[in-house]
Amino acid sequence: MANTELTHLDPPHTHLVSAFLAMESPDWLLSLARVCGGGSVTESVQRFIWDHCISKADGNFYRPYLKRFLKKLIAEVESTGAYVLEELYEQYATFMISVKDDDMAKGLSKILKRVSFLFPDDCSKSKKLVVPLQCSLNLLEGDTGCSIWPSSLFLSEFILSFPEIFSGKSCFEVGSGVGLVGICLAHVRASKVTLSDGDLSSLANMRLNLDLNQLNLNIGLLQSTTEVRILVKCKYLPWESASEYELQVIMPDLILGADVIYDPLCIPHLIRVLSIVLSQRKAHSHAPDENSEHLHDEKIADCEEQETLDKHLREFDSMNGMSLCTSDRSSDHCFQASKQGPVAYIASVIRNIDTFNYFLTVAEQADLTVTDLSEKIQVLNLLPYMQSYQRSNVKLFSISYSG
Length: 403
Ligand SMILES: C[S@@+](CC[C@H](N)C(=O)[O-])C[C@H]1O[C@@H](n2cnc3c(N)ncnc32)[C@H](O)[C@@H]1O
Fold this sequence. Notes:
By secondary structure, the protein is α/β, with parallel strands linked by helices. Helices cover about 40% and strands about 15% of the residues. The longest helix has 29 residues, at about 290-320.
């Protein structure tokens, strides 16, 4: 997580920089640039783009995108007969020589996006949260888990809109993909965050994103001077093969999932996972000293599970010629005794109504109550600059065990 210099800018300029960092389409950037210039891309707007976007783009920035944006920007200014800033021409000329448009075809499919959550003035001391995320240009890479899907943006907005729901809670996410939701949970100080996915390349990418945000697994994050340690753990968890025992030891207060309801073949397995975790009553979870045997078991399970994950990732890395940072094995636990059972919050774009109805049917058979919260709660729009994100398409559901 990083806070960049967006604070002193007015909303149109903040939106322009945020859209650039999130790699929104060049056409959309130009629309935002016109707003900044009162209808056209004036010389001062070009100067702003140079100072705050192009010249600030570090080596991690995807250069074919910069090249495309510059090309469109220069063409737009030239079409109005206005003066084009010399720096923009020079940079574009450099890219013409050094940057090929077919980088993607050469296998360079990962890019670094920065998602800026912009808080309303009266909402928070921190006015924004900028989350760098490595993701794929290919939507299908990592069984779809290497891209940022709209439901995880919405679920993140939900978490940041209602931090009190998640703060101090032990949270578990299924199908976490790039890990954005977990990063937001850490930001609002969930007591424990367990992310999971059934795809190893997504898990490897998720770990890298936790590193980028200084939230890696067992390194933890020391927040401010209060030294609150936030643990973000990655777990290899294919729904089909997850054992009842490994699901039972997680014992979260809250379960999350974004864009995980789309494959009818996976739905019964997903429901099985949800129902095992949701049906855990926490009456039997106590403070660690009263339950040292259970804690001991859980610690052993965590270590074994971590070793298994590391083994899978090592195999995956060696197969793919990658090297990933491995973390130490420390595990810290925070038990939250809760009288009620856990609740799941699932965000979803309903792309196929039959698939979604099938999800509802299987959920009902498993004694799960699914409630549509979409119209009942007001989630803050923290990504107003993101044209590619159609938040109205995303529904939010709560799910609880009623058996
Ligand atoms: C559409 S992506 C959503 C990723 C992320 N939650 C987001 O919204 O950006 C679906 C995710 O679910 C994971 N997934 C799909 N089927 C799964 C299964 N059977 N077991 C575990 N994870 C699965 C995929 O690997 C992928 O990360």
